[in-house]
Design brief:
141 residues, alpha+beta, two-stranded antiparallel sheet, 8 strands, 27% helix, 27% strand
Length: 141
């Protein structure tokens, strides 16, 4: 189960047992118990453990916020280093991602692995000042 749980799937005003929280979030009860070990506050240490819906929402939001790594304007996300890095020579390949976004792809200056970043098409002029763009192989002519 690699999918993130939606914090809005639980009602803030309700309390949940471990099995109820697992069902509401589409996770296993073991996952909820692991979250309790990781710091999810419970209302009582006795069984059944009751979890406040508001506390569960706050815990999930904080957990997912901690995994974010904001990038500086001159960085791409290196898939190997798992941090933002400058591409070699600031050369990037631009290819359309969706109708409103473009994927920038370059080579990490530290390890040589693929580095990527998705930008808005409206912001491409700003990024063009920093990076040296080349059209991607799957882009329109």
């Amino acid at each position: 189960m690699g999918k993130r749980a939606n914090p809005m799937a639980v009602k803030a005003a309700l309390t949940y047992e471990v099995s109820e929280a697992a069902k509401a979030l589409g996770k296993s009860p073991a996952t909820i118990r692991n979250w309790i070990k990781d710091g999810l506050p419970v209302m009582a240490s006795q069984k059944p453990c009751l979890i406040s819906g508001a506390a569960l929402r706050d815990f999930l939001r904080a957990k997912y916020r901690a995994t974010k790594s904001p990038l500086a304007p001159d960085e791409l996300y290196c898939l190997s280093c798992r941090v933002g890095r400058n591409p070699v020579g600031f050369a990037v390949e631009a290819s359309p991602n969706t109708a409103n976004t473009t994927r920038l792809k370059g080579e990490c200056s530290r390890c040589g692995a693929v580095s990527t970043r998705i930008i808005s098409n409206t912001a491409s002029d700003t990024f063009a000042e920093t990076f040296h763009f080349a059209k991607g192989a799957d882009s329109d002519p």
